[in-house]
Amino acid sequence: MSAVLEFDQLFAILGKKLTETFEFKRSRLILLDEEAPGLKIKEAWEFLWDSPQASLSSAESYDNELIKRSLKAQKVTYLKEKSIALIVLAADSEFLGVLAVFGVSIEMLDKFSILANQFALEFKRIRLYRKIEELAITDGLTGLFVRRYF
Fold first, then answer.
1. What is the pTM of this model?
2. Contact, 50 vs 25, CB < 8 A?
3. Are the C-beta atoms of residues 24 and 102 closer than 8 Å to each other?
4. pLDDT tens string 19-71
């Protein structure tokens, strides 16, 4: 995972690792808009177990419920009634989103937690890389592209 610098590539690698290691129905990554106040969903990525190709999907009605339930927990939460594992993605005490895996068994939760924590670290690294890249190509005062970028 640490070899990539783009988010869609990272999520595709996660999908591959999840399908090699676990059995589940589908996985969903719900990302929040960092600039919007409150808990506004920016985008959602999803892949199925039999097709680990990540795809951008629209926000679904229960996404807000998953976000609220995961906010109460610190790291990994397992919802027994729905067989959903929830992983909180946070960077520097800022809540970024939730990784939800549907249909995973509770026996695999420890192994899943290790993989999810690695994903969270790599997600933070990519997010930091994007910020540094943006700072390098734009002027801090005006927000315009710098001459070196052109």
1. 0.72
2. no
3. yes
4. 787 777 888 888 887 777 777 778 887 877 676 666 677 667 677 778 777 77
